[in-house]
Amino acid sequence: MATIGRPRIYPDLRTQWRERQRRYRKRKQQSLKVYHRSLTHEWATPQAFYDALHAEFHFTLDVAAQPGNAKCARYWTPGEDGLSQPWIGACWCNPLYGKTISLWVAKAYASAQAGATVVCLLPARTDTHWWQRYCLMASEVRFVSGRITFVGASNPAPFPSAVVIFRPIG
C-alpha cells in the first residue's frame, strides 16, 4: 500500500538556496568586472611621472609607444612591433595593459638578460602568472603610492601600479 505524503505547500528550500547562490555569484562577478573594464588598453604615461624616472635612468628608447605619446626621440610603435625589435640601452616600457602584457614583460626580462636596462610601468597584478614569473625576478619593484591618473583620463586608474626595473646581470 502506497502512502501519500502531505502536499508541499512550501517551495523546496534547496532550490531557493541554489537560486540565491546563483544570483549572488552573478552580482559578485559584475562588481569585479569594473576593475578590468576599460574602453582602451592604451594608458599614456603622465609626463611628470615619466620625467622623474627619466632623470634617474636617462632613457634612450620607448619600446611601446604611439606616435602621439612617445616619451623618447627613438621609439617603437605597434606598426614596427616593439616585441620583435632589439631593446638596447635604457628602455622605457609602458605596454598595452591587455592580454599581451605578459609578452612585453617577458621581453623586458629577456632584454635585461642581454644587457639592457628596462623600466616598466605596469598594473600591480601580483596574482597573475606573468607577475609571478618575471616581476619577482626583476632587480627592483617600486609600488606607486595612490592611483595614477593617465594622460587623457578624467579619473585615476582603477588599479594600482608599479614600476618594475629589469637591470642587466653583472
Task: Give a brief rundown of this model.
The chain contains four helices and five strands; from the N terminus they run H-H-E-E-H-E-H-E-E. With 170 residues, the chain is an alpha/beta fold.
Please give a handful of descriptors for the protein shown.
alpha/beta, 30% helix, 4 helices, 170 residues, Rossmann fold, elongated
**Rough outline:** elongated
Question: What's the N-to-C terminus distance?
Answer: 88 Å
Query: Could you name the ranges where pLDDT drops below 50 across 5 or more consecutive residues?
Result: none
Give the overall pLDDT as a whole number.
Answer: 87
Strand arrangement within the widest β-sheet reads 1-2-3-5-4
Estimated structural class: alpha/beta
Q: Could you give the topology of this structure?
A:
Layout: H1 13-33, H2 47-57, E1 61-62, E2 90-93, H3 101-113, E3 117-123, H4 129-134, E4 140-143, E5 161-166
Parallel strand pairs: 1-2, 2-3
Antiparallel strand pairs: 3-5, 4-5
Q: Could you explain the architecture of this structure?
A:
The N and C termini lie far apart (88 Å). The protein has a single domain, classed as 3-Layer(aba) Sandwich (Rossmann fold). It contains 4 helices and 5 strands; from the N terminus they run ααββαβαββ. The protein has helices spanning 13-33, 47-57, 101-113, 129-134; strands spanning 61-62, 90-93, 117-123, 140-143, 161-166. The chain is of the alpha/beta class and 170 residues long.
